[in-house]
Amino acid sequence: MCATSSSGRVGLGDAVRGRVLFGGDYNPEQWPEEVWHEDVRLMREAGVNSVTLGVFSWAKIEPRPGAREFGWLDRLMDLVHGHGIGVVLATPTSSPPPWLGRLHPDTLPRDADGRTEWWGGRQHFSHSSATYRRHAAAITEDLAARYGSHPALTMWHINNEYCTYDWGDEAAGTFRRWLRDRYGTLDALNTAWGTAFWSQGYGDWAEVLPPRRAHYLNNPTQVLDFKRYTSDMLLECYVAERDIVRRYSPDLPVTTNFMPMWAGQDAWRWAEEEDVVSVDLYPDPRDPFGAQEGALVQDMTRSQARGPWMLMEQAAGSVNWRGVNRPKPRGLNRLWSLQAVARGADAVCYFQWRQSRQGAEKFHSGMVGHAGEQGRTYQEVKQLGAELRRLGAQVTGRHSVSRVAILHEWNAWWAGEQDGRPSREVEYQQVVRAWHRALWEAHITTDFAHPGHDLSAYPLVVVPQLYLLTDPAIDNLVAYVRGGGTLVCGFLTGIADEDDRVRTGGMDERLRELFGIRTLHEWWPLDPGEYAECDGLRGMLWSEEIEAEKAEDVVAHSRYKGGELDGLPAVLRRGRAWYVSTLPEPAALRELLAGVAAEAGVRPVLEGLPAQVEAVRRGDLLFVLNHGREPVTVAVPGEYRDLLGERRVTDTLELGRYGAAVLSP
Amino acid sequence: MCATSSSGRVGLGDAVRGRVLFGGDYNPEQWPEEVWHEDVRLMREAGVNSVTLGVFSWAKIEPRPGAREFGWLDRLMDLVHGHGIGVVLATPTSSPPPWLGRLHPDTLPRDADGRTEWWGGRQHFSHSSATYRRHAAAITEDLAARYGSHPALTMWHINNEYCTYDWGDEAAGTFRRWLRDRYGTLDALNTAWGTAFWSQGYGDWAEVLPPRRAHYLNNPTQVLDFKRYTSDMLLECYVAERDIVRRYSPDLPVTTNFMPMWAGQDAWRWAEEEDVVSVDLYPDPRDPFGAQEGALVQDMTRSQARGPWMLMEQAAGSVNWRGVNRPKPRGLNRLWSLQAVARGADAVCYFQWRQSRQGAEKFHSGMVGHAGEQGRTYQEVKQLGAELRRLGAQVTGRHSVSRVAILHEWNAWWAGEQDGRPSREVEYQQVVRAWHRALWEAHITTDFAHPGHDLSAYPLVVVPQLYLLTDPAIDNLVAYVRGGGTLVCGFLTGIADEDDRVRTGGMDERLRELFGIRTLHEWWPLDPGEYAECDGLRGMLWSEEIEAEKAEDVVAHSRYKGGELDGLPAVLRRGRAWYVSTLPEPAALRELLAGVAAEAGVRPVLEGLPAQVEAVRRGDLLFVLNHGREPVTVAVPGEYRDLLGERRVTDTLELGRYGAAVLSP
Amino acid sequence: MCATSSSGRVGLGDAVRGRVLFGGDYNPEQWPEEVWHEDVRLMREAGVNSVTLGVFSWAKIEPRPGAREFGWLDRLMDLVHGHGIGVVLATPTSSPPPWLGRLHPDTLPRDADGRTEWWGGRQHFSHSSATYRRHAAAITEDLAARYGSHPALTMWHINNEYCTYDWGDEAAGTFRRWLRDRYGTLDALNTAWGTAFWSQGYGDWAEVLPPRRAHYLNNPTQVLDFKRYTSDMLLECYVAERDIVRRYSPDLPVTTNFMPMWAGQDAWRWAEEEDVVSVDLYPDPRDPFGAQEGALVQDMTRSQARGPWMLMEQAAGSVNWRGVNRPKPRGLNRLWSLQAVARGADAVCYFQWRQSRQGAEKFHSGMVGHAGEQGRTYQEVKQLGAELRRLGAQVTGRHSVSRVAILHEWNAWWAGEQDGRPSREVEYQQVVRAWHRALWEAHITTDFAHPGHDLSAYPLVVVPQLYLLTDPAIDNLVAYVRGGGTLVCGFLTGIADEDDRVRTGGMDERLRELFGIRTLHEWWPLDPGEYAECDGLRGMLWSEEIEAEKAEDVVAHSRYKGGELDGLPAVLRRGRAWYVSTLPEPAALRELLAGVAAEAGVRPVLEGLPAQVEAVRRGDLLFVLNHGREPVTVAVPGEYRDLLGERRVTDTLELGRYGAAVLSP
């Protein structure tokens, strides 16, 4: 929810107060208190105005069951407050202390093979454990009671990266409860799950289990419901803690940090329960399309927030969980941070302030790295802090507006990406990323939307792939086109209903009619490295044996050439509704979507932009970002002031390697 | 057993009654009853004359322990009967209802790591569970009592694709019982397993376990016996149900469907317990040698049946369990179905009639696909049904005769393909397939045979690889050659005795003498992509350091060139006994075997056949099948009538892409 | 410990008595007694003078709990003694009989997932099981009592290839005991493990567990301590049995066989508890650098032994545990055996004497292979036995002296090679091997040393990589350079302290000062196949963003060219201290180290040696070994007698394929 949300909920605005929040996770439990004083000095020099405390503090606050050791946190809160730094206070419930697991093994999750996840890492808690929830609530309550009115406090952060699953016995019980709520009767469950096949009919609720290890494929709707249920159980955990802190801090926003495009949480639903939507973002510096991955996650987070949002975590340098962990080259941290601001972030934060010397993340970079104050990483952080301070007043609270929406939905992902599907080569995330990349390369800024949203404000809506679509969603899409919208739709869309039941005809009839498909005979998934040649493009991953309606307004924009599908339509349009039955190669998909966009009246942010240069408008500011390592000249018709360089720009902008400008009219 | 079996057992003939059985698994539990009426209409239009019912019906018949709900099945049996369609009735014991696992966890299998296989998929039953067997027998009994005399019933089908393993505690008990039966005493077991090595001597039967997870390699004979035992336990399950249904339907044949060349069942032994041998067959439409894989399985099944056999399952289009699941291109379903008939099938059936809309196999094709009646798949099924109707009277019951036998045996496979072997690159199935392919490409039809069979009717016998050979089997081979037969034998043959004990000299002395091998010094397995150059051929996978006997009749047909083995024999012959110490590349193996065959008086079915064209004789019919996508002209000296095209053929036959002809003199 | 050890412990000398020990593991339990007589005949013909008995004899000696069946072993000991063959007697405790696991499941290890390792393989014992230890001690006691004074006995061998882990509950108890011994208090443990991060603070010893399966990364110091603990627990097992046999045979040496460069045991610590250091060595005959791998292990074992050592196991031909198991080509077994002697071995032994016909290792070669007496393998063994007999008196007890030490240490390995590290591509073993290879190819013989050792005797010390270095070790290195030594140090050295705590500045300050590094800004690990171009060399795996001290004596020997690191130092030297921030390609690393060595006064063993020819001095003998398959001419200035060829050599030596000479002045 943005600051100006009409929902009446508090938003990011009050925490921000005209500044871009800048800072990060601060875990000073790791250091002697004398280091804290060095920390706040370096924070001030770097322009840090926000730290997140408490994420991993449970064992320090409650070293024994029921103990409360708040003294250190009192001193810490006062210290940072004394230096003008605000606090995002986290409930420490993502990593319970060892005693909880030892005294209450029922708090530990079990995987599908029955294996326990022990303490010694983090996130070793079961969302379904009543014991865990009770202990989590107790410490949340005491933390909120103590600090809910602390003057340093600007925001509550619940838990951290909710991401656990549980197939154990207590989870089996909550799964049954969730299923009863969803279906009411066993008959309804049997119908929804299609248990008539493979002799899976349930006669007693006690027979229903999470989809544990099986001899052969698990029931797919059971798997789908288990994913829905898991997201909902975690959300229950979040809501329970949120409601506690709200009682003590009714005017402060509450958030929890999403992982970027993470399968475990239906972020559309979760965002509705948050005051501030925040995300963690870690593109690989080695990835030539890392900037586009960042843009995608930023677009998605902004869309979930419906306004300004918070970049809760990024890395100042390298992470430690890839095979080969590269640092960010000089300038990249600044550039990607400004990209987030361009795309709506009002907070640019990091995991973590000071790089650990011990523990599992000691090779994950910090704002202050192992090289310390003299290290390049900190020096660049300091420079960025100064720049964000300059920008603050002019960007915060402003909106980035897009005229194109990409539809994305978790149920479709969960249902579509299971074992026993037509092609394991088709990965939902990669398909969504390919379509977003095409628009990003065409310099067209995109929102993300849920297929049930009101889409009428968008001249163009694209659906990379939505295997599962509910009836209302399909009606929404059809109505959108009838109402004048332009829709481009990729393959494997509208196949299944809400229960993962394949729709009659193999693809929803309303959609077939919309696109002019008479019969969808067969899918022809492609091998890795195999291509489907078509007029004007080459397709990857997938192709289809489609028989088009014989109607004047049904046009094969491109046809397959050669092979079994020779002459059949590859890209089909009926008026403003387009169907793309393959994944065109990047340049072809870009050209296709840019053409359709132009027809729909959607133009690039700037014309004639060089490749690797991104332009984004936020409010009346124009961000221009050079993601290349070579200097570029960019045509920017008009007169501007560059808020970063404090220079005047007339018609032409020079940007160095990883250079950026924020142009104000 | 074929219809004319002298064993006195019933066979396929009565079910067939001059028609090729055409149809498939029919699981109408998935659909409302109004769909059933549409089903029978479409079946009739497609010429369907047989459906398999009940495969996954346990939970529907027995939704609660002890319940019996037969009404729906009564109506269904009557409905199909009323439309002249026969029923193959399956016992539903391959997929127990959830209540069985919940009330009786002892029915669930455990893997070698101790992990349970839960319900929620299928085949979650332990072959060793007394509880499972009791419940399976009870429902079989009641099913047989109710439908054993139903006029629609033509055949019984027991369970489905027996394929489960169990390492759990109850299985440990049945394993011990099986071992006691085999060995009598622990001393005999200790001797057979070679437990003197690694300190594994057993002093009490209670110490003997299935080969569970171990620190390092398991005892190989224990592993071998566990595979023998598993096949036998599953066979016990089969026999128990078979004996029940026979009591109610003494005149009807009983079968269970094999998976094609599946490691879990010794199909030679199983076939002896069946009235009809049936198999499931799913070559990959993408595989350029898919037709050869089909031919191999068909040859093997025909050989196990010693006459006509049943293709119980194939896919009308795609399957759903490969990484990339391709549909069958236009014409391929017909072509491969006719190939099965050519090679002895009297039944061409599918999994499944109507493609599921829910459940784990909804992306496995059906005879009626998601595209429905208008879809290409059903249209082609209908065409095929009409053609099979025309052929029926002239092919059913006829035999396909071969003059070459390929030896294949499960114990050799089980013993030879274990951890700790000379080369993990050597896969038994691939070696067998390579040899079969050589003969298939040479247009020579082959039977498969067990090494203990009477081989005297075959002018040529080939052994791709039989790592384990019993003494009688070796004597049989030697006697075969002495009796005038020609034997070609691949590497890794005759190494181990029945207990997987390496024979003195590293290869059986009788065989060494037969081939003229004085000393087998060392094996030289090859890396992937590595070749052994020889005179006239290149070898793959394997080479050997052999010292040949110095005798006049011992001839090195080909010698290694270069490398460590330079000048040593690669292919050795002594009279009519050939030894091939490497795997020649495909063309070389084809040429070698075709040459030996010619010398043995075995000629191709037709001379001068183009590549990709297969010719097979069944009775007095000549099937000619074009597996290529280009039209071909085939020389067929003589005058024929083509039963498919209803055309006369004189000396020359034109076949289009995937075209087929069935020529009658 | 070598024979002349000043420690007062017995050494190898008395067992050797001027002969190279030649023989191997002898497991005659596998054969009827009549084969034993054939065995000793073949042994005598082959010059075998030592056999290792009892390794896998537990079940045969104690077939039922408490039984003792020694008769067969009495006969065996007497038989071999009667033929003048000495016995290395092993305690049979590496493979307990099945009854132990059945009656005492607490003796079976559990893995990190909780899965049991069952009997049926070998090494299914938990080092922490009090029951196991009690039974192991009892049989060791009785064995030692019976044979401790047998005239055939020359040495005791404890257990076999100690290599087990245990994460189970009894192990949790011994882990806690070990941790209490190490840390004293929980506070100290919490500090060492850095449990303040991720909320892992322990409040009760009972909460501490082995690092079992966790949701995300385990605590790295916990993992490190678990590896230390495992090595120590196994060592406790060894010491307990050693102390028993010493009571009965106070004058005989005791050993246990290491696996070559095996991660599970800190061999520096273990060697201190052994009278004789022995190792098993199995380079892949396919590996073009197999001889170098052998040299590395031999150098390391010699260094651990500080004198002559024992090659306990090698293969006369192939092993059975690789994917593709190649035999040794003609001559290679002899060549590699002589290489071991050149590098200090006084014993050349094999696993095993007669190749098994049954059990899990039947495809592991023996000195007598499946081909028997006529087989090439045995014939070559016999030839080698004769040659070793000739050499014995002149080599045994002599030392091989090196002037270069390579530092290697287990704690550095354990700490550095964990999940969550900068690059999974960096494998410690491969880095060590690359540096050893460079010196081996430069014909410079190397010792290995522990970083805490007195290094002053070595003009040159190289550190391929020591991620963890204790403070004393760092001081030792600095003092070494100050004392006139030359040090070359690879990347990722000196990063962490003893608790795996990253040192301030990201690399130890003393080392940075030593090498002239002002700031270590960032690590830039490289992708597989990616290179860092530098002046005069190409780097692999790794590169670094280093800022050098601006001081006259700090010189960038090579700089990065192009890319982000352009112009920064790649190889830095300050006086005699060199820092190499990447892994130079083989030729470049060889050239670099040869240059530094020359500067330090270290020359190759012989000048102008062809590639593939190795020269090693042992005492006053010069071994020259041709590892190539082509004949070579080697310049050997001076006059020699070749002890192998019984020829005189003047200035020039001709060696055939795999040829060897042992030149005596």
TrEMBL record, chains A, B, C:
Residues involved in substrate binding: 122, 160, 321
Keywords of this entry: Glycosidase, Hydrolase
Catalytic reaction(s) noted: Hydrolysis of terminal non-reducing beta-D-galactose residues in beta-D-galactosides
Location of the active site: 161, 313
Family matches, as InterPro entries: Beta_galactosidase_C, Beta_galactosidase_Trimer, Class_I_gatase-like, GH, Glyco_hydro_42, Glyco_hydro_42_N, Glyco_hydro_b
Record carries keyword Hydrolase: yes
E.C. no: 3.2.1.23
GO biological process annotation, one example: galactose metabolic process
All copies of domain Beta-galactosidase trimerisation, residue ranges: 403-602
GO molecular function: beta-galactosidase activity
Sections of the chain in a coiled coil: none
Glycoside hydrolase family 42 N-terminal domain residues: 25-390
One of the record's GO cellular component terms: beta-galactosidase complex
Stretches assigned to the Beta-galactosidase C-terminal domain: 613-664
Pfam families registered for this protein in UniProt: Glyco_hydro_42, Glyco_hydro_42C, Glyco_hydro_42M
Recorded family membership: Belongs to the glycosyl hydrolase 42 family.
Name recorded for this polypeptide: Beta-galactosidase
The organism of origin for this protein: Streptomyces liliiviolaceus
Phylogenetic placement of the source organism: Bacteria, Bacillati, Actinomycetota, Actinomycetes, Kitasatosporales
